[in-house]
Design goal:
alpha+beta, single chain, Rossmann fold, Dna Ligase, domain 1, D-amino Acid Aminotransferase, Chain A, domain 1, 13 strands
Length: 322
């Protein structure tokens, strides 16, 4: 990657108005409603750019839109299971269709928080310490492991997005109870050490990094409610005065992006504590809702929603040409 932030010299050059784009949204996961809103916003932006656009609420049981030969490129706006975990990407690959975003392999690894954390560590980027909890786990041993991990914990299902199922536990007893609940609801669970610090995110768009956003919430934890429902959540630019820290965060975002094999567009989330920074996860299909962060960062860089969508579409079209 270039390692450079965006200048105002950008834009799609290979797109003409005869192009037909299908925005794929909806899906079957717990993030379905968010995906529908993202898809609606993407479709509006593409239409505003002068392209022919249709929207499809795609599911594993209804992928009929993929048989439409008039579609030139599929813009993926699905979040969560089926849309972001590599399943749909594999179908599109098998059909030799042009689509936006990461391929099936990168999508699958990024969607699995355990696998992605191992990839970050392997690439030399720090990430919070973690232990896994599975059905049939020895909970006596699990309690011992928790004692060595931390005294405050983040419990989350490894393969959900938008902070679905993510909770904070105070102490071992609560961590065990909440881990059992996570297992019951999602069938899998991971527990991270809680790292108190500043939550930031860095978008990567077409091989360049976007401005850093700091997230400040009233509740003290950036959960589902803070992400999508709470209008008091603040998304702030230029709050990290240390220029070197900003550079390191943007470099780490690129490293994590590359470590997973991502392409086109992703958002990388971090916790900053003092001089240290910890990567939490990579979102390969970031949201396009009114509260979504990557479009905010793009706007800060002078890139409108329509321009953002055109840039991602152009990257997909380049793969068709190759």
């Amino acid at each position: 990657m270039s390692g450079e932030v965006f200048s105002l010299d950008f834009g799609a050059k290979a797109i003409n108005n005869s192009l037909k784009v299908a925005v794929l949204a909806g899906g079957v996961g717990s993030e379905r409603q968010i995906s529908i809103e993202s898809g609606r916003n993407v479709a509006r932006a593409i239409k505003d750019a002068g392209l022919n656009v249709v929207t499809s609420d795609i599911t594993p049981d209804d992928m009929s839109i993929l048989a439409d030969k008039s579609i030139d490129v599929f813009f993926l706006a699905l979040h969560g299971q089926f849309g972001e975990d590599g399943q749909l990407q594999r179908v599109l690959e098998d059909k030799s269709l042009v689509y936006t975003g990461c391929g099936p392999g990168a999508s699958a690894v990024a969607f699995d928080k355990v696998a992605s954390k191992k990839a970050f560590a392997g690439a030399g980027v720090a990430t919070p310490k973690m232990i896994e909890c599975e059905r049939g786990s020895d909970f006596d041993k699990f309690e011992e492991d928790l004692a060595f991990l931390s005294n405050r914990y983040v419990i989350k299902p490894p393969t959900q997005g938008s902070s679905v199922g993510v909770v904070v536990a105070e102490g071992i007893d609560e961590a065990v109870a909440l881990s059992r609940e996570c297992l019951e609801q999602f069938g899998e669970c991971m527990v991270e050490e809680f790292i108190s610090g500043r939550e930031v995110t860095v978008g990567v768009l077409c091989e360049k990094v976007l401005p850093v956003i700091e997230i400040r919430v009233k509740s003290g934890f950036y959960d589902y409610n803070a992400k999508y429902l709470d209008d008091d959540t603040q998304f702030l630019f230029d709050t990290i005065e240390d220029v070197e820290m900003v550079r390191k965060l943007q470099t780490d975002a690129e490293v994590c992006f590359d470590a997973l094999g991502c392409r086109d567009i992703s958002r990388v989330d971090f916790i900053v504590r003092g001089e240290d920074r910890y990567c939490l996860e990579v979102n390969t299909i970031p949201g396009f809702t009114g509260h979504s962060l990557l479009p905010m960062a793009a706007k800060k860089a002078g890139i409108s929603m329509s321009q953002l969508c055109l840039m991602v579409i152009e990257e997909a079209l380049k793969r068709r040409e190759n």
